[in-house]
Amino acid sequence: MKYLPIDQNLFIRNRQAFTGQMKPNAIAVFQSNDEMPSNADQFHPFKQNSDIFYLSGIDQEDSILLIYPDSPNPIYREALFLKKTNEHIAIWEGHKYTEEEARAASGIQTIHWKEEFPAIFNMLMNHAETLYLNSNENDRASILVETRDMRFAREMQQRFPMHKLERSAPIMARLRVSKSKWEQDLLQTACDITRKAYLRVLQNIKPGMMEYEVEADITHEFLRNRATRHAYGAIIASGASACVLHYVDNNLECKDGDLILMDFGAEYANYCADLTRTIPVNGRFTERQKQVYNACLNVQKKALDMIHAGMILKDYNAEVGKVMESELKAIGLLTDADIKNQDPSWPAYKKYFMHGTGHFLGLDVHDIGNHYEPVPVGAVMTCEPGIYIREEGIGIRIENDVMITENGLYDFMRDFPREVEEIEDIMNSRN
Ligand SMILES: [Mn+2]
Fold it and tell me: Cα angle at 7 between 57 and 136, to 5 degrees?
């Protein structure tokens, strides 16, 4: 791992919160993600399953976490089963957690090699009444490849049909949505790295540069600051490409007079940043670009003011839509007639702002959380209104990451240049 060690108290506290929600005499099992094959003998870079990481801090393939608070044998109240290592394996396959390291990372005392799991688990299951199984219940997920958690769940349904089975996912969604102080710090680090990359782009971009060169500058800054990788595929979209919401080709020239929309974020210690900034390639907004940019910025500022604990996302999005509607009217994109005749299920503003205002953020860039319940204190969300005018080749989105605290909103990106004048000043004072 490139990131610095994390305070094990984060994971200890997370497990306490999880066990507090479990039924009596129940076991919960969490599996790491598989290593995903690409071709031949190669694998995609490993990405840990967010739930096992959240509960253990273990960032390694082939890991199992077992939690059994009422275990008759106290050493199995919590246990890790990890990939075996020794000197020989360390030389051939690289470093894996030693028992000591796994204890230090997780705060869990009982560490076994994974070969011991079946026998121990079987013995414990004979005492337990309920088994909590984990699954990916992210609303946006549509998954073809079966995860290790799902394969395990299938096997358990077969092997233990008389036990009660429970879902861990609803508990995890409730816990993970509210971030602790430790998580706030990790998210801030991910955002700080992202800020460095943004400042580098403000220094280096000029007409004639290719979008992938901008992406390369960002990647450079990420890696040299201990980011694991991009939290998602960076969108580096100049000119009309900015109107393609998930443009990731990043292969066109940044042209004089165009804007460039950049949506990117660092992943640090598995926590994700998610930034969007839109800047002029040549360092100066045209009057029209400035007008549309400021309309979008006005919407963002008002939308940020609306975020509060207890809000329902559907109502919040509708309210932001109203603000967007009046801004689009002010810059000549919507008329009173457009609004009067609009289809209420697809309001007129959606022609120019067709996505939601934000999403939960954390270990996943589209983090888990309940869209129909009031948003709790501790929730971290993006705020990212956009205005996309295909006929003018202008696409603008401005995105900050914020946390709802007891004392109002905490903006992880409060010092990321965002005003027109600020951006122009930096770009025009560079050497
Ligand atoms: Mn986003």
Answer: 30
Expressed in angstroms and rounded, the spacing between residue 382 Cα and the centre of ligand 1 is: 6
Per-residue pLDDT of 272-328, as tens digits, reads: 999 999 999 999 999 999 999 999 999 999 999 999 999 999 999 999 999 999 999
Taking each helix axis as running N to C, give the angle between helix 169-177 and helix 9-19, from 0 to 180 degrees, rounded to the nearest 10: 130
Cα(187) to centroid of ligand 1, in Å?
A: 14
> How many structural domains is the chain composed of?
2
State in Å: Cα 168 to ligand 1 middle.
Answer: 26
What's the gap in Å between 232 CA and the centre of ligand 1? 10
Residue type, 246: H
How far does the centroid of ligand 1 lie from the alpha carbon of residue 275, in Å?
Answer: 7
For residues 218 and 97, state if they share a domain: no
372-412 per-position pLDDT tens digit: 899 999 999 999 999 999 999 999 999 999 999 999 999 99
Question: What does the longest C-alpha to C-alpha distance in the chain come to?
Answer: 75
Cβ-contact 264, 197 below 8 angstroms = yes
Residues 287 and 414 in one domain: yes
First-to-final CA distance of the chain: 36
Residues 129 and 215 in one domain: no
DSSP H or E stretch at residue 272: strand 271-272
Domain boundary pick from 159, 176, 193: 176
Taking the centre of ligand 1 as the mean of its atom positions, its distance from the CA of residue 383, in whole angstroms, is: 8
pLDDT, tens only, 215-243:
999 999 999 999 999 999 999 999 999 99
- Using the 3D structure, point to which of 176, 206, 240 is the last residue of a domain: 176
Whole-number Å distance, alpha carbon 274 to ligand 1 midpoint, is 5
Same domain, 96 and 202: no
Domain hosting 94: range is 9-176
Q: How far is the CA of 261 from the centre of ligand 1 (A)?
A: 13
Residue 4 lies in a domain: no
Distance 112 CA to ligand 1 centre (A): 39
pTM above 0.85, yes or no: yes
